[in-house]
């Protein structure tokens, strides 16, 4: 090769590396999808995730969280991951369950003995399996938030036993696990987007809905639904996910930074959750909501047989269920 040619090649290579470095050094603003109001525990924790990333990568990655479902409802946002429209989000295990059945198992009614049991499951090896099951949907789950326990709130009467739900129209998120659980209790499950529930309660399109107290309170649904019956039928973990395309593009060091940031954000969310539950309960009491603790949950638990039969329907899912139950 002639010297001039060789020099030419070297110059070209140098330009390419400079370009690569230029691209790598460019700041990347990550779009975050979030369903809740900005002062919600998960919202604050998602912001924190972005802040830690910005700090630890010296601004190469920053997070921009779009709250209040501005980027669309949950099902739509999950689908957007496949198209790389969203870079990170916090999704309910129940909603993810329509896409990856392992997530449905971890969202089954009365599956966890306590919040500690849930944390032990998702923070351990099972959490990694759950994350792997999301790969086909272009997601990696880096950490898990709590979604509290979901109970019924209703407009005209309290719920003490499943028979009280008979024939009632109860709003549920648009996903199989919620529909099946509420129908097994004898109600008429009505899937609706989160943002449509207030008006639906107000206009009598539905007789009630079900959620944890921070969501019941932050949406102000308690202004219309004055009965909150704590049967705690679902305790659903929520996944802090990032796009797999993004994940695969990260250096190993950056992946570790993302993981650490996600774990720290989940720790914060769980702390804030406990505080917000207290605050929400106080607001509900102040607003005159009649809260009744369902003392005997057994009839609710017993009614879940058909849900398990229907949804835990492969050897793999049966094994996963057993593994979850075996976690101390
Ligand atoms: C909230 C969850 C969110 C659900 C929402 C709902 O955080 O993921 O989709 O309930 O009921 O508690 O739609």
From TrEMBL:
Residues 251-278 form a coiled coil. GO terms for biological process: transmembrane transport. Keywords: Coiled coil, Signal. One of its GO terms (cellular component) is outer membrane-bounded periplasmic space. CDD domains: PBP2_TRAP_SBP_like_3. GO terms for molecular function: carbohydrate binding. InterPro entries: DctP_fam, TRAP_DctP, TRAP_DctP_sf. Gene3D superfamilies: Bacterial extracellular solute-binding protein, family 7 (3.40.190.170). This is TRAP transporter substrate-binding protein.
């Amino acid at each position: 090769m002639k010297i001039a040619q060789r020099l030419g090649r070297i110059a070209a290579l140098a330009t390419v590396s400079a370009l690569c470095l230029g691209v790598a050094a460019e700041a990347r603003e990550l779009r975050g999808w979030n369903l809740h109001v900005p002062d919600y525990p998960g919202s604050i924790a998602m912001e924190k995730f972005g802040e830690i990333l910005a700090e630890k990568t010296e601004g190469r990655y920053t997070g921009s969280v779009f709250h209040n479902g501005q980027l669309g409802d949950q099902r739509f946002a999950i689908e957007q991951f496949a198209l790389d429209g969203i870079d990170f989000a916090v999704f309910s295990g129940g909603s993810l369950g329509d896409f990856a059945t392992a997530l449905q198992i971890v969202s089954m009614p009365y599956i966890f003995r306590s919040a500690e049991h849930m944390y032990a499951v998702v923070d351990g090896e099972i959490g990694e399996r759950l994350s792997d099951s999301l790969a086909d949907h272009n997601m990696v789950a880096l950490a898990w938030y709590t979604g509290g326990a979901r109970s019924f709130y209703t407009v005209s009467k309290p719920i003490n036993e499943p028979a009280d739900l008979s024939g009632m129209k109860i709003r549920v998120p648009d996903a199989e696990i919620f529909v099946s659980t509420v129908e097994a209790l004898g109600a008429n499950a009505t899937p609706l987007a989160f943002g449509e529930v207030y008006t639906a309660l107000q206009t009598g399109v539905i007789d009630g809905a079900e959620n944890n107290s921070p969501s019941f309170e932050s949406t102000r649904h308690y202004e219309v639904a004055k009965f909150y019956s704590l049967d705690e039928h679902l305790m659903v973990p929520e996944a802090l996910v990032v796009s797999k395309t993004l994940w695969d593009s990260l250096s190993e060091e950056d992946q570790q930074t993302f993981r650490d940031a996600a774990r720290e954000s989940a720790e914060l969310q769980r702390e804030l959750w406990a505080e917000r539950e207290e605050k929400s309960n106080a607001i509900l009491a102040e607003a005159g909501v009649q809260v009744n603790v369902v003392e005997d949950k057994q009839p609710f638990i017993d009614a879940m047989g058909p849900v398990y039969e229907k949804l835990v329907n492969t050897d793999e899912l049966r094994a996963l269920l057993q593994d979850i139950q075996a976690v101390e």
